[in-house]
UniProtKB/TrEMBL annotation:
Record's protein name: Hexosaminidase
Gene3D superfamilies associated with the record: Glycosidases
Highest taxon of the lineage: Bacteria
Length: 143
């Protein structure tokens, strides 16, 4: 495997990449909704929630340890899998956000209305980018 440092968005507080990649066959215990939505295979890898300060993930062979906000950890794992579907890096990633409120506002009051499929795509991307608020403006007050 190529020893390129994985890219995470938004940029984490710290990334400690050990230079190794492990073969990945899927997770045995990732939430079903995420497995379906992002086409993550079922396999032998496990995700273990640990108690630790802050928010982040640590990957060792066959296991991903997560702490802090689970949604942020899952989004980071999925970002890694989007870069290499069959491998996960030996890595420790600690995340910290400058703003507790990370939102997106969609105004569809005076323009085209997205399809349900487009809404789902927007929400999936916002999840992957670790946004935690979505506002939609639907009212049209103009004639």
């Amino acid at each position: 495997m190529i020893n390129t440092v994985p890219q995470i968005v938004p940029q984490p507080k710290s990334v400690n990449f050990m230079g190794r990649w492990f073969s990945f066959d899927g997770f045995s215990n990732m939430p079903c909704f995420l497995v379906r939505t992002f086409s993550i295979p079922k396999g032998s890898w496990t995700i273990e929630k640990v108690e630790k300060q802050g928010c982040g993930i640590s990957i060792e062979e066959g296991k991903v340890k997560i702490w802090g906000n689970s949604n942020i950890a899952y989004a980071t794992i999925i970002q890694l899998l989007m870069q290499k579907k069959d491998a996960l890096p030996e890595i420790v990633i600690e995340e910290s956000f400058r703003f507790s409120f990370r939102g997106y506002h969609l105004d569809i009051a005076r323009g085209g209305v997205p399809t349900v499929s487009t809404f789902k795509d927007i929400l999936n991307w916002l999840f992957l980018l670790k946004y935690n608020y979505f506002a939609i403006y639907l009212e049209d007050l103009f004639p």
